[in-house]
Amino acid sequence: MDERLNISNEDFSLPEWANEMYILGEKEEIAKQIKIENKIGELQVKLINQKYCIEEIQKYKLLLTASGGLLEEITKKVLGELGFSLLNAEKGRSDIAAKYGDLGIVDSVYSSQARMAGQRSGTRIRQGHPYRCFRRFG
After folding, report:
1. Domain end among 12, 45, 65
2. Which of 45, 52, 101, 119 reaches 20 to 30 Å from 35, CA-CA?
């Protein structure tokens, strides 16, 4: 009899009507399985959300590692989050113009490649009189 109980699930299939009958605590075991599957589903959602959270945090590392347009975009994002209003910079320039209250800034973005060329890494912010600084930005 023990040999017959060692049958794998691939070796048999039950008719549909047999799924409506429960034996030997099967119903309780199915309920436990459903609870476990639900917990796994909830944990998978939490894991996805946690991974997204970490990815969003890690984007700020672009301030240290990025160059070009990517560095400019993360710089704009951070300035916006700090409460700066972004202004249109002079056409043909890659500077970022922003204003915080009466304080106007022009942000010149330099990448790590620029640093190798002898310039400062990261961003360099020049502060000036709001009207003098932004006269050309309208």
Report:
1. 65
2. 52
Residue 85's φ and ψ, nearest 5 degrees, are -95, 125
Provide the number of structural domains found in the chain: 2
**Which of 16, 18, 36, 15 is closest to 26 using CA atoms?**
18
| Tokens describing residue 123 | 């961003």
Task: Report the predicted TM-score, pTM, of the whole model to 2 decimal places.
Answer: 0.56
Query: Is residue 29, in this structure, part of any structural domain at all?
Result: yes
On whether both 86 and 72 belong to a single domain, the answer is yes
pLDDT (average), residues 30-52: 97
Identify the domain containing residue 61 by its residue range. Answer: 25-65
pLDDT, mean of residues 49-65: 94
C-alpha dihedral sign at 100, 92, 60, 67: negative
Evaluate if residue 94 carries a pLDDT over 70. Answer: no
Domain match, 36 and 82 both: no
In angstroms, the CA 51 to CA 49 distance is 5
pLDDT tens by residue, 95-133 = 788 888 888 887 676 655 554 555 444 444 444 434 333
Examine the domain organization and report whether 42 and 73 are in the same domain: no
